[in-house]
Amino acid sequence: MALKIIVSYDGTDNDRDALALGRLLAVPGAELALAYVRHSFGDTALEEKQAEELLAQGAASVGMPEMPRHVVVNPATSVGLTELAEREGADVIVFGSEYRTAPGTVKPGISAAKLLLGGPAAIAVAPSGMRSDPAPSVGTVGVIDEGDEAARETANSLAGALGAGVVEHGAGAVDLLVVGSRPEAPPGRVVLSASSDFAVEAATFPVLVIPRGVALSFA
Predict the structure, then answer these.
(1) Which positions of the chain have pLDDT values less than 70?
(2) CB of 179 closer than 8 Å to CB of 195
(3) Fewer CB within 10 A of the end CB, N or C, for the chain?
(4) Could you read off the pLDDT of 44-93 as tens digits, one per residue?
(5) Which of 85, 188, 172, 22 is nearest to 180 (CA)?
(6) How far apart are CA 81 and CA 112, in angstroms?
(7) Pick from 111, 133, 155: which residue ends a domain?
(8) Are strands 92-95 and 4-8 parallel, antiparallel or unpaired?
């Protein structure tokens, strides 16, 4: 099945970073979509229209006006995205870093952090400022497998699609990091170990955290 990637998008610079990472991960044949979570249950028609226009602008900004777009209504962004991912069978949810994150560094925001504690899909987080590179390239993919062969398979598949090599995290400079979930994580769920959480927070490159036992194919 084709890889399905959902980008959490609200038009801010940080979510434009997320869109840049989504495009990088969306290998030929993958489906890239945008999602906006509305929290208000007030003027439904007006807010729905505004949300749809925002997503249309995001899709047009990267030359993909026909990109699938989803407006979700839920008081919690993380819950809304979880429900959408499960309904759509999404493989990856992509976030930008938290507001005011220093350029070139990664800081998962509240919604991303919640999904890193049991989310049903892989979670990708873009470093702040990634949007400024019109053609980001990946020469080396790092991997922290946490004893899960699925993480290594994912890293190898992604590296093959991007024409990159694979190294252990800490063995040299990398351009993107694939992280497996901790051994105690329920199968199919994302849960970071303390050491992997530190590695994510210290990253200066995009990070992709996969659910336990779920290998993603970028072929």
Answers:
(1) 41-43, 45-46
(2) no
(3) N
(4) 766 788 889 999 999 999 899 999 999 998 989 999 999 999 999 999 99
(5) 188
(6) 10
(7) 133
(8) parallel
